[in-house]
Amino acid sequence: MSIGLITPSFIIERSESKCTQCQVCVNQCANKVHIFTAATKKMSAADANCVNCHRCVTLCPASALIVRKNPLEFRVNSNWREDIIRSIYLQAESGGILLAGMGNDQPYPVYWDKLLLNASQVTNPSIDPLREPMELKTFLGRKPEKLTFKNGKLYSQLPPQLELEIPVMFSAMSFGSISLNAIKSLAQAAQEAGTYYNTGEGGLHRDLYGFCANTIVQVASGRFGVDPDYLDAGAAIEIKIGQGAKPGIGGHLPAQKVVSAVSETRMIPEGSDALSPAPHHDIYSIEDLRQLIFSLKEATEYKKPVFVKIAAVHNVAAIASGIARAGADIIAIDGFRGGTGATPLRIRDHVGLPIEFALAAVDSRLRQEGIRNHVSIVVAGSIRHSADVVKAIALGADAVYIASAALIALGCHMCQKCYTGKCNWGIATQEPSLVKRLNPQEGTRRAVNLLRAWKLEIKEMLGGMGINALESLRGNRLMLRGIGLTERELNVLGVSAVGE
Amino acid sequence: MICIEAKGMPYKELNRIIRHQLANRDETSCLKNINGQRYIGDALRGKQKIIIEGTPGNDLAAYMDGLFIEVKGNAQDGVGNTMNNGLVVIHGDAGDTLGYAMRGGEIFVKRNIGYRAGIHMKEYKEKIPVIVIGGSAGDFLGEYMAGGIIIVLGLDRSSSENIVGNFCGTGMHGGVMYIGGEVFPYKLGKEVQVVPMTERDIYVIRSYVERYKHYFGLEVPAVAEKFQKLLPLNKSPYGALYTKY
Hints:
A: alpha/beta, B: 245 residues, alpha/beta, Pectate Lyase C-like, 2 helices
């Protein structure tokens, strides 16, 4: 006789006095946690199925529900922690690779929270953003060595640029990993806010062709959806070499999420796993990368900037230098906290580098080599709020990509079960009954609000520093001080310690 | 027919000429003295024919969406990279990663090709890409194949030469391969199975062999019986590998 050793992670607490047996929770939970027994007119819960997404809690009209971490405790053990013991039970039962969603949730230090910003006092007046103009406009792309003018007009040819009203873009999330309604929300929000969203490796659904001017199309190792119309549709093209949530391995969309629309957009059989190979099998060297970059530039007549997206790993500075010299216009670096729909747990939690260090190292190296103007740097993984954005720019970024933050704006509660395809918020799912819970108009409104709020906060922080243009903050590490950082960490980041 | 003398011309200039001058015409064009220029035919749409004399460089017909390109000679790596439509005929050998992520169109190669051909080929409904190889293929043929048809004829081989390399069809989860010779089981990837041929398969092979004979003017022995058909074992070769955390 075999015993299942897995106990529920979460338990439902239902207030019997408040509950009216309206069964909203029964209808809303895609994991079938809530049960109404008609014969006895009693509600009960299958706690083991609960993923703690708060859908039922939020929608219960009587506020009768709380979801708690199961207080079942193992003996206190700082080494054999509960999550490790549970993971061994799961593997003993299945023999499988543990699959996880969203980003690294382990207690590594968050370096954004160890950096503090300056403000102006006395000798250098601050600027009032409510009454004076503040320039947040950002241009991404290769910048020329110098400009020449004739008769007072610009004579130099500028390489193609992307124009952003705010230095925040929506990062790559594929159609397949998230629903069409979620992508529509972000595409429309990007258009309204004057920024860009990224198709991810799932191809471009035809309903999204109206947002071409704000679309970055991605070419990943699976080359899903890549045809001349797709390349024409993007304002820019991004070659995905890696991502922070799974450095070094390929993409994986589980078969249950490959429904007919996903199958059509990606051109693979319905119900098959959508696999992206680990390397691009035609990129085995930096010269091969240069070849792919130029094949895409030729395809689009050199009219669009080409991004190369990499995960932050060891020697990222040298890699970035190679990528800049290979002809990329923009380098996107994804730190180890980056999110995803599905990745092996151990790769997510134990591979990669913090984006703060990767950014500082890449920016310093490119400046030392005199080629910082050849590329723009975009960072991701994880940018959580406007202060992270300001600190990233001070460390040298041209712009940031957000994904988890954008999904949270749409309603995500970080239950981290995206790979099951049962997202109760209609975000990381392809089931029609769940997808329609996310209204794209409402999603757009929330995403636009998030960007608007961050834009206002960024202006406040800039004004507080006495700066009225983002360009004056870019790479300006003097505006940062490190708190609780070691000597070596301060060196790599290129910032002084608080008090210095 | 208009001819372009391409001797010593950098690829950027050559491709600009092809795109703007040749692509809009109805007549066949000819490129003379091609010597390693890359990206010829890159993302071009249309139905024209371009004849290439010489050896084109890497990424010939990459992302191509139409057009008929005929190479009077050998081709290099990356032929038909992510090709969407059209036809490429090569009167010689081709290099590695032929038809990477190919989504439509057809490629006919007279003789041999290198490794990783047809990797991650795709298909959807009637849009089915096809690769026909006259000689043999290298390692990792049809790796990660998700759709499409690969036919390897195995002509002109010595008895010791293998028709396909190692790891043939590894990661295959769609599409079909017809190999015109014996494929030893140890050469196949774990995700591939050899299945019996049907009437339909013989018909498909015969029609592509006829086309091969038409393009290269060769006689191909009628050997449909000696073909082996390779199919993926299932659509989700790695589904059982993972467990939810």
